[in-house]
Each structure stands twice: as structure tokens, then as C-alpha cells.
Amino acid sequence: MDPRPDSRLEALQARLGHRFTDAALLQRAITHRSFGADHNERLEFLGDAVLNLAVSSLLYERFAVSDEGDLTRVRAHLVREDSLHRAALVLGLPEVLRLSEGEARGGGAQRPSILADAVEALIGAIFIDAGLPPATQLVRQLFGELITSTETDSWSKDAKTELQEWLQARKLPVPSYRIVATRGQAHAQTFDVECAVPALGLAEQGEGRSRRTAEQEAARRMLGRLKASDKPGSALRS
Q1: In what helix (H) or strand (E) does residue 191 lie, and over which residues does it extend?
Q2: pTM of the full structure
Q3: Is 48 a residue of the active site?
Q4: Catalytic option among 44, 117, 120, 192
Q5: N or C terminus: fewer CB in 10 A for the chain?
Q6: What domain range is 37 assigned to?
Q7: Do residues 27 and 113 share a domain?
Q8: Mapping DSSP to helix (H, G, I), strand (E, B) and coil, where does residue 216 land?
Q9: Same domain as 179, residue 101
Q10: For the packed helices 81-91 and 112-130, what is the interaxial angle rounded to 10 degrees?
Q11: Per the structure, how many domains does the chain have?
Q12: Range with lowest mean pLDDT among 63-72, 174-183, 193-202
């Protein structure tokens, strides 16, 4: 029997700071849906909620006088895909993910979205295995230094949030987003996303290495266009 998979999981548990009582939970947390039916998506769903709760608690402690809006913006930046991807690399998840042969050949073990989902799944698995304190401890381990070193005024609103607020302040419906194209190999795709404001007859496109990044870029372009229209003498044109 090849001992390497077990040794890799032992090393992962050491990095997590948690030894699983139920080893099946750990296996499920690192299993992508391409590998089989017992995959990590339900754990990811739970882990997302636990992550938001844990980060909210840490921010509440760290920023004693900040209001809800500031705390919400900081949390949004902390739990986004880029941050979770970096956490996955720290934990060495590309070495232990269970993927189908096709997904593995396509570079799935390096794909930010898959790695980010696996981090959330591990948080969810630890929550089920041992409760909230160990799960919160992992979140503190992964994000504590960043939380400690940041200030709320260094985190501006993300473009999607700012665009939505701009439209709502003017009694306009929120924008819609859709993928219009994907380019490149599976492990290195580029997404083209359209941000549309039907009430104004406007649309802008953005691109990025993930759908979320592309949506933010499209929203940023739309927001710039709308703000320019607020200037004297300017007019919106589709």
C-alpha cells in the first residue's frame, strides 16, 4: 500500500491544528464533485456560514468602534476568493485534493475557485467534527494576522456594492450580470462578464480569471460611466 496519501493527510491535519475524530469528514472536505458522489459541496455551504460568523466575531473584537458598514466591507474583502485561495496554498491543499483524472489533468488542483471552496469545506468539516471553537481557531490562524494589521478605512467598498448603492439611491433596479464568454484552458480560463442596467439601457463588460473578478471589473466600468454622467453637461448614452 502506498503510504503517501495517509502521510499527506497527517501533514494537513498538523497544518490545520486539528486532528479529526471522524476521518471521513476530512476525506469529504478535500473531495471535488468530479471525483465522486461523496464530495465537499455541502461542507462548503456550511463552512461558508461558519467562516462568515468567525470572521465577524474577530472583526467585532478588533474594531470596537467601527460601524456595521465598515465591518461588512472588511469582511467581504477577507472572505473573497483571492484570500481563500491564498489560505489554501498555505495549507498545501493542491497536494491533497481529490479530483477526477480529467479535472486533475486540466489543472484543477491549482484553480483558485476549487481551492477556495475546499478551504470553506474544511472549516465546515471541523465545525461538525469538534464544534465552533476549533473552526474559529482555524479562521483566526488563517486570517488573524491580516485582521490585526488592517484598518477599516483602507478597505473601500467593492465595485459591485458601490454600483448597487448608487442605483438604489436613485430608485433604480439593481444591475444584472451574465457570462458572455470563457476563453483558455480549464485551469487557466478567462471570463468575460456583462454588467447591465436595463432601466438605463446600459451595459459594460469586464474580464478576469474568475467570474467574481470579471463581475467586479464590469461593475467598476459601469460605475465609472454612471459617475461621469453625473457631471454637468454629461449625458448617458448606450
Answers
A1: strand 190-197
A2: 0.67
A3: yes
A4: 120
A5: N
A6: 4-154
A7: yes
A8: helix
A9: no
A10: 70
A11: 2
A12: 63-72
